[in-house]
Design goal:
heterodimer; A: mainly alpha; 3-stranded antiparallel β-sheet; 7 strands; B: 110 residues; alpha+beta; 4 helices; 3 strands; 13% strand; elongated; transmembrane helix (chain A); transmembrane (chain A); membrane (chain A); Tscrpt_reg_PadR_N (chain B); WH_DNA-bd_sf (chain B)
Chain lengths: 426, 110
């Protein structure tokens, strides 16, 4: 006879879980004890096959899990499972609800896991796409369980009757068998206090959102007191039956509320970041790209874009054909208007590029006449070829020309202005 | 005649009997019953019977850790169990005697 194997075989695990499902109506402690015996039994049987036992072999030897459970029940003198003899419409409804609850729980876990992974690794950028269905599935699952638990003496036992509860039990048992399993479960249990605070925080956050921050703080403190009081009551099993159901329902509602609040905050942060990014982009495009001509031009005080520059020297004489550069040596090129065309509106003006270059000023202007013709390009200086009023209040900056002779213009003619000066800069 | 039907009524007695002299764990009890000739006894029935006797206070249990496999829950017949065994044995012998007499008469008559 071979020694029993310590490792659980998949076939054994599945068989035990199936038996566990059949015993779902028994009190949890009793069911757990029986399942422990069944597991020991199955392990011994599996050992006879040197561990390589299949589900079919187990069924051949012991009967189907349902038969095994029925045989065990009758010989142990346990209550028969709920009257299957009368498969009434209500019983069918309950079974359907259980299947639905199971399916919704699976959907919650699935979508929730995807949403978490999606958020952590920023895969889609829209985790709400998965978190939304997860929340909906959770609400649906909770509704199913609450409905099942209504009117039951031990509402939470309904959870154990859901299809697949046996497998969850089995998984938990295997978890406990791990060296780190028990500490991990105890650690999760110790987080209960944190949950009491968290659910109060959800209520407080909701109040702060709907009302004001001080209101939220006050509500949070109040909710914290209630939450801890209820938590301790539930822990000491002071709350049972329908009240227990109500407490768990409220917890579920708070989880949903918390998830929605978290989603809203996440969405807000994302939109704010996107907004800030857009603003930063705008700020960047306002800067002139290095080494390229000025494209956007300047706005004048009258709001019209600047499309021409008239430079007068210290004596008030108009300078012609001046090349302009900025501090970086970039040519200052103002935007150009479209070329003048016949049939344009009378008195419309068109500024054309100076033949010496795009950054040479002043530029010439076409003034459309009454017949809609462009005519000759002229130099359309706003103050003419010479500033009308000598800037007497503005002496030479270096004080060298104290005579300044501004009252005696020396170069009245525009034609006397310099030819294109050599390009500045080294 | 289906032995499994007969077994149902006497499984308590059978289980108590194989545990009378030596404690045993569940699967061990199944094997002892098989070795004794009760081939048709179902595993689950034995485990269920052990559980019922335990809850009735006729058996005590203790767990023996095993180095090579799962822990084994050993069953031991206590005072209540021995009383129960004594009474059940008496009932069985009377019943079996009556049945044997009945069956033998029938056989002789035939």
């Amino acid at each position: 006879m071979s020694d029993p194997q310590s490792t659980a075989h998949p076939a054994v695990v599945a068989y035990v879980a199936a038996v566990r499902d059949e015993l779902g109506d028994l009190p949890p402690e009793e069911a757990a004890e029986i399942v422990e015996d069944v597991r020991e039994h199955l392990d011994q049987v599996a050992a006879e096959y040197d561990g390589a036992v299949t589900h079919a072999e187990l069924v051949d030897r012991l009967g189907a899990p349902a038969e095994y459970a029925a045989e065990l029940r009758s010989s142990a003198g346990l209550a028969e499972p709920e009257p299957v003899a009368q498969p009434s419409r209500a019983a069918f409804g309950r079974r359907l609800l259980r299947v639905m609850a199971s399916a919704f729980i699976v959907a919650t876990i699935g979508f929730g896991a995807i949403a978490v992974v999606d958020t952590v690794f920023s895969l889609s950028g829209a985790p709400a796409m998965f978190a939304g269905p997860a929340v909906v599935a959770f609400v649906a699952a909770t509704a199913c369980v609450l409905f099942l638990g209504l009117g039951q003496v031990r509402p939470l036992d309904e959870l154990r009757r859901l299809p697949g509860a046996g497998r969850v039990d089995e998984a938990l048992r295997q978890l406990r068998a791990m060296p780190w399993g028990q500490p991990a479960i105890e650690f999760l249990g110790s987080l209960q206090t944190a949950w009491w605070v968290a659910r109060a925080a959800v209520v407080g956050a909701a109040a702060a959102y709907l009302g004001s921050l001080p209101l939220g703080a006050a509500v949070f403190l109040l909710a914290l007191a209630v939450s801890i009081r209820f938590g301790r009551l539930t822990q000491s099993s002071g709350v049972g039956g329908q009240r227990q159901l109500a407490v768990y329902g409220a917890n579920a509602a708070l989880v949903v509320g918390g998830a929605v609040v978290a989603l809203a905050i996440f969405d807000y942060v994302q939109q704010r970041d996107a907004y800030l990014d857009a603003v930063a982009d705008d700020a960047y495009t306002d800067e002139y790209p290095y080494g390229e001509p000025y494209q956007d031009g300047f706005g004048g005080p009258d709001g019209l874009p600047v499309d021409n520059i008239f430079a007068y020297d210290a004596d008030g004489a108009l300078l012609e054909n001046v090349r302009l550069y900025d501090q970086s040596g970039n040519p200052i090129v103002l935007p150009e208007s479209e070329p003048c065309y016949e049939g344009a509106l009378p008195e419309e003006t068109f500024v054309v590029t100076n033949p010496w270059g795009t950054n040479v000023y002043p530029r010439l202007t076409y003034q459309v006449d009454e017949r809609g013709e462009c005519g000759e390009a002229t130099l359309d200086a706003p103050f003419g070829s010479h500033l009308p009023t000598p800037p007497a209040a503005d002496p030479a900056p270096d004080g060298a020309g104290e005579g300044s002779a501004l009252d005696a213009p020396r170069s009245p003619g525009a034609g006397t202005a310099t030819p294109p000066p050599p390009a500045k800069g080294s | 005649m289906d032995t499994s039907q007969l077994l149902k009524g006497v499984l308590d007695l059978a289980v108590l009997s194989v545990l009378r002299d030596e404690d045993g764990y569940g699967y061990d009890v199944v094997r002892r019953l098989r070795v004794a000739g009760l081939d048709e006894v179902g595993d689950a029935s034995v485990y269920g019977t052990l559980r019922r006797l335990y809850r009735a206070g006729a058996l005590t249990t203790y767990v023996v850790p095993s180095e090579t496999g799962p822990h084994r829950k050993y069953y031991s017949v206590n005072g209540t169990g021995r009383d129960m065994l004594r009474r059940s044995s008496k009932t069985w012998r009377e019943f079996a005697g009556v049945m044997s007499g009945l069956v033998d008469e029938e056989t002789e008559a035939a």
